[in-house]
Write a structure and sequence with these properties.
The protein is built from one helix and 61 strands. The chain is an all-beta fold. A hairpin with a 6-residue loop joins β12 and β13.
């Protein structure tokens, strides 16, 4: 059946990935303050829109004088940016302000900022920056200051941070989770004279001088060596050459690598156990991607109970030992590489990845491993500009399996899971979304790589997108039935194989290529994708797919860039319109290389329009059981090549 006839019928050893030193360098959506003192929870207080947990509250020269304002309600922002208002900014009021990883950006500020709200809270699991330029002052004086669960605080700027509320612990530092400075100048934070400053630790020329047994000393260690048996310290800050090996069985609450590069623990002595200290949290800090850890021996719980590890900073942590700790593993920034099946401790705990959707957030990179660990994705996720990175990814040429449940528990921007390196395979177990989350899911296979979803994907109707990072073909296989997803989009040159009946039966729409009304002009394959039925019949509601805006070949691609095919010798039927939806598909439906016939059934009261400039070549029966099938291909192009059956009642062929 040609459209011209229709009137007649009617998708190493150490691996280091660049991580930006500061969250603030990434482009963010900023909502700027209007020139008034209205409470900050009011729309009138802002030039465009009220800041949210996913956006930054900003002050620029729109504000012409000093600005003292109250929150007006408990508020949660991605962060605060101060540029060039006409005077100092003071944020107060009898409410709580919660900030996310962006924190406070005063890197280009021309005025000072004071925070004297009733309460100031660092977001759970986030690595929060207070970046203050030289000559500027951030005064933090809330009624209550709260560190969120397993969060970290980083002060990379040369300006002043003053506080009368933040206090030192019994060892003289704020905590192993708070650091100041950059590169080799990074130190733990101490409060001195009301100002947050770098702590000068007890010097140790080599690790052999780490002799504390009380758990109260903070060491600055200049070289590797063997720590004496029975040592128990608060923190160890390493300042020496790259490649040092620290050997020994010891107890600690924090380790900071401010050395020249890599720092190794118990290489050649894997029987030595590092025990997590009485805080029951071992914080592993780094200033940037140039500092790397490798742990060859096990890490164990403190005697008082389940204990965990927190990664803070931009560096990589390689866990190569058989760890026995049973608490939570948190990656609030940087990269965690687990090299053995129990690298993340026992499955009594779980792992939290705090993802920003880019390389400045927390990331779990799999180097060829099978893990049973339950994993939770937190944080704002994708959606802010630039440098996208997977929350979970794979090293090139590796095979990896996650059998534990993966839970999306953060914001609305979505999380990326897949591989950024070629020739890798990642098999996933069940994926679910918490009831409080509105996040969607990106499955993100790199060139010649495969992501296999063996478990059911239950996003409570949230969206699922499959795309490749480099517009080079990658594959996703959906092996479970009844995935609870809403809008499903396959594009950027991906191949999606549906091997289970009813894989997308609950979806609201299947989009292959671009979306309706999208006029994007790009040389990338935003409008390229393939669905492989693999010999399995699939019912869906709406079928859609459109080319890019602009003229071919550099913008819009031909219709055969968007395909429904089958790699199996068995026949398969695609049923469209099961919930009365309507859509248009500018693409090709074909039998495919397997040789089995593909058939098309239109059901429901809606309209399916087949359009485009390439022939449909499927040979199975086209059945219009209900609703309307509109054949709108370019004149002379085949829309239906086989037999058509038109049902009784409201069935229509146009």
């Amino acid at each position: 059946w040609n459209s011209s006839l229709r009137k007649d019928v009617i998708k190493l050893f150490f691996t280091a990935i660049c991580v930006c030193a500061g969250f603030a360098v990434q482009a963010q959506t900023v909502r700027y303050k209007a020139n008034n003192t209205d409470n900050l929870n009011l729309a009138s207080s802002w030039s465009v829109a009220i800041p949210t947990a996913g956006t930054v509250a900003g002050w620029n020269n729109t504000v012409t004088g000093a600005n003292s304002v109250n929150l007006g309600a408990d508020l949660s922002w991605l962060g605060i940016r101060i540029l060039d208002p006409g005077g100092a900014v003071t944020i107060g009021g009898a409410n709580t302000l919660s900030t996310d990883a962006f924190g406070v950006d005063m890197n280009a500020a021309t005025v000072d900022l004071t925070l004297n709200t009733a309460s100031l809270t660092l977001k759970d699991y986030a690595s929060t920056f207070w970046n203050v330029a030289s000559g500027r002052t951030l005064t933090v004086s809330p009624g209550v200051f709260t560190r969120g669960d397993r969060s970290a605080l980083r002060l990379p700027g040369a300006g002043t941070v003053a506080s009368a509320i933040i206090a030192n612990d019994a060892t003289g530092i704020v905590g192993p989770w708070a650091t100041i400075g950059t590169t080799t100048a990074m130190r733990y934070v101490t409060v001195s004279g009301g100002t947050l400053a770098g702590y000068a630790g007890t010097p140790a020329a080599t690790a052999a001088q780490v002799t504390d047994t009380t758990g109260t000393v903070n060491y600055d260690v200049a070289a590797g060596g063997t720590i004496p048996a029975g040592a128990s310290l608060n923190t160890l800050r390493y300042t020496g050459a790259s490649g040092a090996n620290i050997v020994g069985a010891f107890t600690a609450n924090g380790i900071l690598n401010a050395g020249a590069g890599s720092l190794v623990f118990n290489s050649g002595s894997p029987a030595n156990v590092i025990t997590i200290g009485p805080t029951r949290e071992l914080v592993l800090s780094t200033p940037d991607s140039g500092r790397i850890y490798a742990f060859y021996g096990p890490i164990a719980d403190h005697a008082s109970g389940p204990s965990g590890i927190t990664l803070a900073g931009g560096g990589a942590v390689n866990l190569r030992g058989n760890n026995t700790y049973s608490g939570v593993t948190v990656v609030n920034s940087g990269i965690l590489y687990p090299y053995v099946s129990n690298a993340l401790g026992t499955t009594d705990g779980h792992t939290v990845i705090y993802s920003t959707g880019r390389s400045d957030g927390g990331r779990l990179i799999l180097p060829g491993v099978t893990l049973a660990e339950p994993i939770t994705l937190m944080g704002p996720g994708d959606g802010t500009s630039g440098g996208w990175g997977n929350a979970i990814g794979c090293v090139a040429n590796t095979t990896n399996t996650l059998t534990g449940t993966l839970t999306l528990a953060g914001g609305a921007n979505g999380y990326r899971i897949g591989s950024e390196s070629a020739f890798s395979e990642l098999t996933l177990g069940p994926i679910q979304r918490s009831t409080a989350s509105t996040a969607g899911l990106y499955l993100f296979p790199a060139a010649d790589s495969t992501v296999i979803a063996n478990g059911r994907i239950d996003l409570n109707g949230g969206w699922l997108t499959v795309q490749t990072p480099t517009y080079t073909p990658g594959t996703v296989v959906l092996n479970a039935a009844s995935n609870n997803v809403g809008t499903v989009r396959f594009h950027r040159d991906c191949l999606v194989k549906l091997t289970a009946p009813d894989a997308l039966v609950l979806s609201t729409s299947l989009i292959i290529g671009n979306t309706a009304g999208n006029t994007t002009r790009t040389t990338g394959d935003e409008d390229v994708g393939t669905v492989d039925l693999a010999g399995v019949s699939q019912p869906i509601d709406r079928l859609e797919g459109y080319p890019n805006g602009g003229a071919a070949p550099n913008n819009a691609t031909a219709s055969d860039s968007r395909k429904i095919t089958s790699s199996s010798a068995g026949s398969a039927t695609l049923t469209v319109g099961i919930r009365n939806g309507s859509g248009a598909f500018d693409g090709v439906i074909e039998n495919g290389p397997g040789g089995g016939a593909v058939a098309l059934t239109k059901t429901g009261t809606g309209t399916l329009t087949l359009t485009g400039n390439r022939d449909n070549t499927y040979t199975g029966i086209t059945a219009v059981a209900n609703g309307t099938l509109a054949l709108n291909k370019t004149n002379g192009i085949t829309a239906v090549s086989g037999d058509i059956v038109i049902g009784a009642g409201t069935s229509t062929l146009q």
